[in-house]
Amino acid sequence: MQPIVQQTNSEATMSPKISTKQDTKTALLETGIEIMLEKGYSNTGIQEVLSKIGVPKGSFYHYFDSKEDFALQIINYFDGFHTATLLRTLRNPDATPLERLRIYCRNGIEKVSSAQCRRGCLIGNLSQEMADQSEVLREALSLVMQKWRDLFAACIEEGQKAGEIRSDCSAHDLAEIYLSGWEGAIMRAKITKRIDPMNIFMEVTLEHLLKG
Questions:
Q1: pLDDT tens digits, residue range 17-44?
Q2: C-alpha 160 chain-centroid distance
Q3: Which residues contact 184 (CB under 8 A, 6 or more apart)?
Q4: Model pTM greater than 0.85?
Q5: CA of 135: how far to CAs of 61, 62, 67, 125, 139, in Å?
Q6: CA 148/CA 135 separation, integer angstroms
Q7: CATH, residue 132
Q8: What is the domain extent for residue 76?
Q9: Degrees (nearest 5) of the Cα angle 132, 174, 186?
């Protein structure tokens, strides 16, 4: 889910000291991300989130209508950080389009490895867990994935125009394969507790599937 990117504020350890109302909401969201990455939506308890940062239950319902609304806002919050990272990587003027895709993979592999292959991608995790449980969350997760795919497609299209990436398939279709394969490789890394599936994905996809 997560999005896989370099560590952001949304994945940092939260401080129990909260000074403003906005800090309280941010702390709730970031703590929710941490716990959902570890346990998923169903096994994340509101009281656990509150206890971790030391705020009363009323604070939660001041910002969120329900647990589902909490998860929805977490998805949007996480997406904001991840999309910003995607844009920096996929529009990096100092690297070619194919190199940008490799940088993205390497950053993701480093992050998954540093977490001992335990957490994965928040958006991918929730997509697998909640697609058949909540239409509201399913739709939100689908829109996030579509946006990420379109960012990859733009990068791939740029590489096609430069002759670096194959042009016998549409950029949209190649981006769909790329994103689906990447998320699958992250899932496999979680299952095997090894980063090998992600390394294999990077080499095969970039050197054989996409390379022009």
A1: 444 667 899 999 999 999 999 999 999 9
A2: 26
A3: 197, 201
A4: yes
A5: 22, 24, 14, 16, 6
A6: 20
A7: 1.10.357.10
A8: 9-209
A9: 50
